[in-house]
Every structure is written in C-alpha cells, then in structure tokens.
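Example 3.2
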Amino acid sequence: MKNYVLFLLIAVAMSCNNDDPEYQTVNVGIPQVVSKSEFRDLIEIQSPKPISQSGKIYAYENYIFVNDKYEGVHVIDNTDPSAPAAVAYIKIPGNEDISVKNNFLYADSAIDLVVFDISDIVNIELVGQLEDVFESYDFRFPENIYSVDYSNYNYETDIIIGWTIEERSIEIVDDYGFETINTGSNDSGGLNSVGTGGSLARFQIVDNYLYTVGTHDMSIFNISNLSEPTFTNTFYSGNNIETMFQADGYLYLGSTDGMYIYSLDNAEAPSYVSEFVHWTGCDPVVVDGDYAYLTLRGGNNCGQQESVLEVIDISDKRYPTLMATHLLENPYGLGFKEDVLFVCDGQAGLKVFDKSNPLNLQWVETFSNVHATDVIPLSNSLLMIGNNVLYQYQYTSNSITLLSTFQL
C-alpha cells in the first residue's frame, strides 16, 4: 500500500511538472533600421580609404572594383598592374554586386538599383536610381540566430542597415521548436565594353540586359538607355541562389541545392531548362563549352560536409550529368583561361589544374601562401582576392608568377 501511494505521489508530481512551461535561451536578431529616404541619402563618392571586409571583385578596362561587403565599392587604377593605386571609394550601403557597360556602373543598394557614370574616374556621378526592385531581407542577414524580431521594422518605410543580437528566453511549445517571435505585420512581398566579374557574381550583363539574382528571384533590367535602365521582369528562379554565370546564350545559377540552367532565347523572359541537384553546399559555377565546373564548400552553414570540385557534362542542357569529383579543402570561387582552371581553395591557397581533358583534370601547382576567395582570369593576367588583399599574377609559358600584391 505504501508503495502504491508513493507511486501516485510521484505520478502526480510528474504530471504537474509536465504542465509547467519550459524555456530555453536563444539568440534573437533585432534589425537596426533607418527610413528609406535617409538610407538613399547615404550614397556618396569619397576619397580612397582602407577596406573593412573584401567581397567580390570586378574588372573593367584599366580599373578593378572591389566590393566592401554591404558598404560600397573601392575603385583601383590598374594601368600599371605591378603598382595598382586606389583612386576612389563609392559608398553604397547594402551593396554586394556590380556590373559595368560602356562606362556606366550598375550596383545594388539593398532594395535599389543605382547607376553611376564612371567615364571620368576622378569625378564619378550618380545618374540613376530604381527604387524597391530587389528583395529586402538579403541585406546582412545575421547568422547563428534562432529567430528575428521584426516588431520595430516597417517594410514599407524602413531599410535594415544592421543587426543587434539579443539573448531571450523563449518558451518551448512542442517537440519541434520554440514559440514564434512576434514579427508584426511587415512581411515582404555601337560600343560594347562590358567588364568581367568573378565566379561569385550575381549580376550579369548580356547585350542590352542586366540580369540579377537574389536568394530566390531573378530580376531583369533593360539597359538600352545606359543611364536610365528600366525594370523588365522578375520571377522565382530557384532556391537559395548564390551565384550566376552566363555563357553561350544560357544563364547558370549556383544554389546551395544545385545548378539551374536558363535559356536566353527570350532575353526578357529566360526560360528554365533543367536543374542539376547535389547535396547541400555553397557553390559557384563556371562554364566552358560542354562542361561546367562547380565547387562545393563543406563545413559551414550550407550543410555540406565534404569540399569538392565537380565536373558536369552539359552538352545536353536538359540532362546535366556529373562526370568527375575532386576533393578540396575549403573552396570558394574559380575561373579558367583556355585549358587552365584556377580554383580558390580558401586557406589552402590557389590551385591550378590542367583541364585540357575535362574528365581527367590534372593538378599543376598550388600557391599555398595565400588565402584565395575569388579569381578573374584576364587576357594578360590573373586577378585574385582574399583576406583584404588583391593579388595579380602574370601568365608565363608553363606557369603563372606573382606580379603584385595590394593591401586593400
């Protein structure tokens, strides 16, 4: 009898405890906001200054443009590649990508597309702005958080310029997650001189059109009138898009889930052709002829564990087929010149492969004393960036040799 009573007391106690709410401390992102009008007034042409965090690189004629992540663009005069010189800084809050055609530079500024006349590089001018044409939540989204509290953010009138991370105690409401944080009611809805971007680019100019991709959407702009682009079309283009490469009338979108192929037969409305699916990983892609080369970076929030270089047969665009896989350490961008493939392998350096036989890539050499993030193979030299340093290499008959380094 005593044992029975004791059992009942324990059962009652357990039942009461199960009714009590359970809590866990989590990181919550709180947006720092300014009004859209204040945000747009922040664009400014300034004197050269040190970079905060190097992002993507872009080459146009004798100039190199280096993105300062979410802050703006550094302009470097590369007339003498052995001694590059910074000449200007374009402050563009929320910037990640640019493209240039015939001395007009197109850049994203969070949700806006802005246009600069760079014909006089020491007197750059803002000449155009298309407002509210890009996704708004791409700008500096915080990592390693459980949720976001948008209660102080009005989608219609505000722009997010940064984040505050706050620890909060959240009630566990079921076995699958925590209580949803209140997000308010702000849910989003003749001359032909074109520059060259790296493999991490999300802007591509093809003829009279600028193609851009966000996380899920592709937006298209008609740039026939270079100083006054017009918004043409936007549509869902895939999941978790990170990069875009164009070749031979097709756009290749690198996503964390695979590679999407779109045809440009109708320039204003690219049509979906196929998708190559792989395990989840961060991946830029470049294309040469019948083969696509794609890197997958593991050990990060993209979900993939292994880091590899993939070779994909795209001779039939409807059925891209994986042909070969090569293990890497921590790959980012890549590029090619003729039969040479350059792969940025993060802290493991710049790796050079002979791709004369795409199905049997041969390692040639590794520049292991550099941190490599992205490359642009030009006709006479190779540009590479990593850890706020711009490297330039000169092609030789059998190899490449370091020409200069420039601390950004």
